[in-house]
């Protein structure tokens, strides 16, 4: 069980770092994608809104939920096996 908890902690740190990298990349890409000849199109605004919803807080929540599901799965497997 302790191995799963340690792996869960390491996984959470790795996921948080990757979410931060994703958000940093989106901060660069979104302004480039929403400027230009078709910037006023409804589809551009819709897609920009989707990517704008990926705030660092939302991505952190998703990462925490993913690690929680991993830990619950590991606990279920270890209880069944052990």
Any overview of this molecule?
The structure is a single chain. By secondary structure, this protein is mainly α. It has one domain. It is 84% helix and 0% strand. The protein has 3 helices and no strands. Helix 1 packs antiparallel against helix 3 (56-81). It is elongated, with a radius of gyration of 18 Å.
- Element string (H = helix, E = strand): HHH
Q: Give the N-terminus to C-terminus distance in angstroms.
A: 10 Å
What share of the residues does DSSP label as strand, in percent?
under 5%
- What general form does the structure show? elongated
Briefly note the structural class of the backbone. Answer: mainly alpha
Q: Please outline the major beta sheet.
A: none
pLDDT averaged residue by residue = 84
Low-confidence stretches: none
Multimeric state:
single chain
Radius of gyration: 18 Å
How many H/I helices?
3
């Amino acid at each position: 069980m302790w191995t799963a908890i340690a792996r869960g902690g390491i996984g959470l740190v790795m996921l948080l770092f990757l979410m931060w990298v994703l958000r940093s990349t989106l901060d660069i890409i979104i302004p480039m994608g929403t400027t230009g000849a078709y910037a006023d199109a409804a589809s551009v605004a819709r897609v920009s809104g989707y990517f704008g919803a990926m705030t660092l807080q939302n991505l952190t929540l998703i990462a925490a939920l993913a690690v929680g599901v991993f830990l619950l799965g590991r606990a279920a497997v270890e209880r069944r096996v052990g």
